[in-house]
Amino acid sequence: MTAIDQTDVVIVGSGFGGSIPAYHLAAGGAKVTVLERGPWLAADDFEHDYLLGSSYTRAFDFVVGDGMSVLGGNCVGGGSVVYFAAMPRAPRFVFERHGSIGRRMWPQAISRDSLEPWYDRVDESLPVSTQDWSDVSYAGGLWAAACNHSGRTANPAPVAVDNKTCVNCNFMMAGCKFDAKRSMLTNYLPAALAHGAQIRPLHEVQRLERTEDGGYRVYFDLIDEEDYRVHTGSGVIEAKVVIIAAGAGATPVILQRSEAALGTMPHGVGRYFSGNGERLNTAIIDEDRVREVLGLSREDGPVYSANHIGKGPTVANWDKLDGSLPEYERYSLEQLYFPPGLGTILAQAPGGEEPRWYGAEKKEILKQWANWLTIFLMTEDDNEGVFGTPPPTGNAYRISQQMLGRGPLRYDPTPNTRHGWALADADCKAIIEKDGLAKVSPWTNDVVGAYTVHPLASCRIGDDEATSALHPNHELRNHPGIFVTDSASVPGALTVNPAMTIAALAERSIPGIVRELQSRGVDVKYGAPSPDGSITGRRAVSKLDLVAGN
Question: Which residue numbers delimit the Glucose-methanol-choline oxidoreductase N-terminal domain (predicted)?
Answer without folding.
Answer: 68-272
